[in-house]
């Protein structure tokens, strides 16, 4: 049987839900609010950037970003995020969660603000500096993934740990919603002030010079929520699990948690020395022992997150094209620049309000009741079903009288992504690995997800193009079309369902029991399969 647990960790595991839990959720969650705002706001302004900086005199259609520029603007933050997840995940295990946590937030604040200050008024200069700042913004965002998940898992009690970690991640839904709302307010304000005609009416006046402020304001707004939480992040104590099991400072861990929990906690320095000196608590990431204990777990968390994000990010990044195809957003020539921002933002806001946000909070409500494994398997299953249900009778959904049904089906895929693998792939890696490798392994899992997001973001910009060369966006080669893109996404979701069987079920167990760090016989510390 596993040995007796440290008193400080037992106190955390059995603590009743109290104010500090909710404080931690808000502090960590505001980082994810900012993450989602910054990563999804860019999809609201790419068409505006094309109109402003790539207008062609005499063209029957408004200017659009060239394929390479569009891919860079939308994807460079994802590349930065991948790099940040690997780097800050590793650094969080080396320096401690708290020290690194402040670095990531400061980087997010500075680069989010700087994204709106891109230099010059020529296309090349503006796009180059925008991509530069968005890469480093993504780098900071990347660090927030492993650190927020690890901090919340190490603070939480074992009874409601899944809900607390999922609640941090669920703040993404509000961030996506906020990006749409801010874009609606800003574009409506500018439209009211300047009353631009449609492009077909007057190509030049349809994009007022002042429109250049719209995308800058929308992107810069992302700095505000992150800046507001910086002070409180710096006030959070280091997690007891890092302090005791990694830094090996039992006295400090007991003092910190006694203050947080407001109870007496013994330091148990000898027990910490005994646990940390045990050989089974010292194997590294690239050791045979890690491969034996956690190799399949890491394969499960990386593969499912990779497959999920291909589907999730491709849907988000080409959803405005889906809405155009079904007639929710008029042809670009029929709108002014601000009108187009408003229409795209309205569509994204409705999807977030009706499916994205509810899906996240359904996970929060049920994750500790039915478990991570069941939610993830169910989510992938229904995403597969709805993707094929959209793809097979695709022509039916494009007919004007059926467009509302298409939006409902499309929304349900988002609902089951969020009441499903989009949340659980974030939660599980923060629970099943040892404390000294927890942040690193979460960072690796998250980076695999962002690799999938890059495939989705770059690949589906091209894949979703029409098979008819006369109907493709300017500068793009023909693709497989939206219908066959939906088929591909359905297959990807099915593979995600299959790889879910490699992921263990951590529900109701302590982190040390899951990772085998308790002071006891190592043969009883294996994590059973789900």
Automatic annotation (TrEMBL):
Q: Which GO terms describe its cellular component?
A: membrane
Q: Which reactions fall under this protein's catalytic activity?
A: phosphate(in) + H(+)(in) = phosphate(out) + H(+)(out)
Bias regions of kind Basic and acidic residues — which residues? 520-530
Name a biological process GO annotation. phosphate ion transport
Recorded hits in InterPro entries, A to Z, give:
MFS_dom, MFS_sugar_transport-like, MFS_trans_sf, Phos_permease
Coiled-coil region(s) at which residues?
A: 251-278
Q: Where are the transmembrane segments?
A: 20-49, 69-88, 100-119, 163-190, 213-232, 350-367, 373-392, 404-423, 443-463, 484-503
Q: Which domain of life is it from?
A: Eukaryota
What is the annotated localization of this protein? Answer: Membrane
Q: Please list the residue ranges annotated as the Major facilitator superfamily (MFS) profile domain.
A: 24-508
Offer an example of a GO molecular function term for this protein. phosphate transmembrane transporter activity
Annotated region (Disordered) at 510-530
Q: How does it sit in the membrane?
A: Multi-pass membrane protein
Question: What's the main place this protein lives?
Answer: membrane
For this UniProt record, give its keywords in alphabetical order, as a comma-separated list.
Coiled coil, Membrane, Phosphate transport, Symport, Transmembrane, Transmembrane helix, Transport
**UniProt record similarity statement:** Belongs to the major facilitator superfamily. Phosphate:H(+) symporter (TC 2.A.1.9) family.
Instruction: Write down what this protein is called.
Output: Phosphate transporter 1
Native organism: Artemisia annua (Sweet wormwood)
Q: What is the lineage of its organism?
A: Eukaryota, Viridiplantae, Streptophyta, Embryophyta, Tracheophyta
């Amino acid at each position: 049987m596993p040995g007796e647990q440290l008193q400080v960790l037992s106190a955390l595991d059995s603590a009743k839900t109290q104010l500090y839990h909710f404080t931690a959720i808000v502090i960590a969650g505001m980082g994810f609010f900012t993450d989602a705002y910054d990563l999804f706001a860019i999809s609201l302004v790419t068409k505006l950037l094309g109109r402003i900086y790539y207008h062609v005199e005499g063209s029957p259609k408004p200017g659009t970003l060239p394929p390479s520029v569009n891919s860079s603007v939308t994807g460079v933050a994802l590349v930065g995020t991948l790099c940040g997840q690997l780097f800050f995940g590793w650094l969080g295990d080396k320096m401690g969660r708290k020290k690194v946590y402040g670095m990531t937030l400061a980087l997010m604040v500075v680069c989010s603000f700087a994204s709106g200050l891109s230099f010059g008024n020529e296309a090349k200069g503006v796009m180059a500096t925008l991509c530069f700042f968005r890469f480093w913004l993504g780098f900071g965002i990347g660090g927030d993934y492993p650190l927020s998940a690890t901090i919340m898992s190490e603070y939480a009690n074992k009874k409601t740990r899944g809900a607390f970690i999922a609640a941090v991640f669920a703040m993404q839904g509000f961030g996506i919603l906020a990006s749409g709302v801010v874009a609606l307010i800003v574009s409506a304000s500018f439209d009211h002030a300047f009353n631009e005609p449609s492009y077909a009416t007057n190509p030049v006046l349809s994009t007022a010079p002042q429109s250049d402020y719209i995308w800058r304001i929308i992107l810069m707004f992302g700095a505000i929520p992150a800046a507001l939480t910086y002070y409180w992040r710096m006030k959070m104590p280091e997690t007891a699990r890092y302090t005791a099991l990694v830094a090996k400072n039992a006295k400090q861990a007991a003092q910190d948690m006694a203050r947080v929990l407001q109870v007496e906690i013994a330091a148990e320095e000898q027990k910490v020395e005994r646990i940390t000196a045990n050989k089974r608590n010292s194997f590294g990431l690239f050791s045979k022992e890690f491969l034996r204990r956690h190799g399949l777990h890491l394969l499960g968390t990386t593969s499912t997150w990779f497959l999920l994000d291909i589907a999730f990010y491709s849907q988000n990044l080409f959803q405005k094209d889906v809405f155009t195809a079904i007639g929710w957003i008029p042809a670009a020539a029929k709108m002014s620049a601000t009108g187009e921002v408003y229409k795209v933002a309205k569509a994204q806001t409705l999807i977030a309000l009706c499916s994205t946000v509810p899906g996240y909070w359904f996970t929060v409500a049920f994750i500790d009741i039915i478990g991570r494994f069941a939610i993830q398997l169910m989510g992938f299953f229904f995403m597969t079903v709805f993707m094929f249900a959209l793809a097979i009778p695709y022509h039916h959904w494009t007919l004007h009288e059926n467009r509302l049904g298409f939006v409902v089906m499309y929304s349900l895929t988002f609902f089951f992504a969020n009441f499903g693998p989009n949340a659980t792939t974030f939660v599980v890696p923060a629970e099943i690995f040892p404390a000294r490798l927890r942040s690193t392994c979460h960072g690796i899992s998250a980076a695999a997800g962002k690799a999938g997001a890059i495939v989705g973001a770059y690949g589906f910009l091209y894949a979703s193009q029409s098979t008819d060369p006369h109907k493709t966006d300017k500068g793009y080669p023909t693709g497989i079309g939206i219908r066959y893109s939906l088929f591909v996404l359905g297959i990807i979701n099915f593979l995600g369902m299959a790889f879910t069987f490699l992921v263990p079920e951590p529900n109701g167990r302590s982190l040390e029991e899951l990772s085998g760090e308790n002071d006891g016989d190592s043969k009883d510390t294996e994590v059973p399969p789900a």
